[in-house]
Amino acid sequence: MIDLIHVTKHFGDAVAVDDISLSVARGELCVLVGTSGCGKSTTLRMINRLIEHSEGEIHIDGQQIREFREESLRRRMGYAIQSTGLFPHWTVARNIGLVPRLLKWPAARIQARVEELMALLGLDLEEFADKYPHQLSGGQAQRVGVARALAADPDILLMDEPFGALDPLTREGLQEELRELQGRLEKTIVFVTHDMDEALRLADHLVVMHQGRIKQQGRPLELLREPADAFVESLLGGEGRGLKEAALLPVSQRMLPLGPRLLARERIGQQASLREALSLMLWRHAERLTVVDDDDLPVGELSLRRLVGVRSDD
Ligand SMILES: Nc1ncnc2c1ncn2[C@@H]1O[C@H](COP(=O)(O)OP(=O)(O)OP(=O)(O)O)[C@@H](O)[C@H]1O
What we know:
Layout: E1 2-11, E2 14-24, E3 29-34, H1 40-47, E4 55-60, E5 63-64, H2 70-76, E6 77-81, H3 92-96, H4 98-102, H5 107-120, H6 125-128, H7 138-150, E7 156-160, H8 168-185, E8 188-193, H9 196-202, E9 205-210, E10 213-218, H10 220-225, H11 230-235, H12 241-248, E11 267-269, H13 274-284, E12 288-292, E13 298-303, H14 304-307
Parallel strand pairs: 3-8, 3-9, 6-7, 7-8, 11-12
Antiparallel strand pairs: 1-2, 1-4, 4-5, 9-10, 12-13
Helix pairs in contact: 5-7
The structure holds adenosine-5'-triphosphate (ATP).
């Protein structure tokens, strides 16, 4: 759906993005990650033409972005940024309705859309609709920013560290919501972050950049297991990759069917990650866990040996 083909961006003599090629399929969540100044934001902004690329081609659905009228390009793309970019003298509701108003939707339709989005992002209408940005917490403001990006129902979302300034708990909550929204609304998302845990948690397609170039791209597990070079390996966490991989794999993948032994006392859900299972084992000094389904019924067991990847339990 989004194709960058040998794209380069110069700022004067400096090369910010250097001959990158990248394809994002419809409905995919693509995360650009890398060290500061490696060209992530520039790449994102070239897609909606906030920055014009210098060389190469950028296509949306096979058509060059330069052939789109700017308005129709922006209508297809929501854009959310870390600083939220909310207008300080506008209420939450007015901020969210910005793009529909620019598109001259009738007032009743804008109102309905604002209400729908506030509900979707867990912002209580009564409480927040008439508040101003300075009356919001960081997390609430970021939700408003994401709601605004979704307002005209774009099929593409471009997100530049949208959860950057949040505490880890709020951030994890919003990451989960984003994944759920993506599944439900079938958006194609390009997401920029420098937080590797966030990148691994969110990405279908992970792109590692360094000094304007793409070092490696693929599925998160592929990159974790086979980093292309020492730089990618260390960015992905070096020796810490074991825990990062465990965070991506569900317990159900390693559990064994219930055996004749007594059920282990400690329980874990089958959707929990292997990392959570390991943490529970450490915390409870347990080498075996009973795996339960959503109704808390035992469906299997997980031993430490299985968890760490020893094939047989003997
Ligand atoms: N408008 C501009 N004029 C000149 N140089 C720029 C401009 N915008 C970005 N750059 C340079 O291009 C390079 C890439 O910047 P970019 O903002 O894309 O990096 P980034 O990976 O998003 O970094 P960060 O994680 O720090 O936000 C940097 O060296 C930056 O200084």
